[in-house]
Amino acid sequence: MDSVFRTPQVHVIGEIIGASGFASTKVYARWRMNVGHDWRLLSGIDNGETFYDCTEHVEDISVFEHPLDLHYACKTISGWPKFDVEVWTVDTHGRHSIAGYGCLTLPMSPGQYELDVLLWRPEGGIYEKLTSFFLSANPELVHKNMVISGNDRFGLQTISTGKVMLRVGVIVKDFNLHGVLM
């Protein structure tokens, strides 16, 4: 237990405020925090799904107010936490369709932040565009790890769809004991 107290630690506290830029009145988000292999979750839940906002939008914002509280220990700063999110819409027939994917590396400096995760989704060919228009069924990624790795997205035709707003506080501990100034 003593070794955990001298290990560099990162605590992320905040909330997923909501999303904007979507025409649907029923919107929800699936999220996860991705970290490197040398990171260990000490407390909290590193993935989840928000409730969906089914109210009339105020200023084009779907409100989630989903809490985040994660505490990590790490051996290296490589693999710093990345917030990975998918926003989904539900149409009047109860069909769920992807509205956007996004990823954001959390700030490395301690402090309070309000962040926007910009979202995109695959555009697809003519068949997928027609399906999207008539059935509200947008093309989805087969391999979700493409969201995190920009190299895999090379050549993929995408469109911008909206954004997810975060409010997070980043707290770092004991990095200075290992020669890392934050």
TrEMBL record:
Subcellular localization, as worded in the UniProt entry: Cytoplasm, Cytoskeleton, Cilium basal body
Keyword annotations from UniProtKB, A to Z: Cell projection, Cilium biogenesis/degradation, Cytoplasm, Cytoskeleton
Entry's Gene Ontology BP terms: cilium assembly
Coiled coil: none
Record Pfam families: B9-C2
Main location: cytoplasm
GO cellular component: MKS complex
InterPro entries: C2_B9-type_dom
Source organism superkingdom: Eukaryota
Entry protein name: B9 domain-containing protein 2
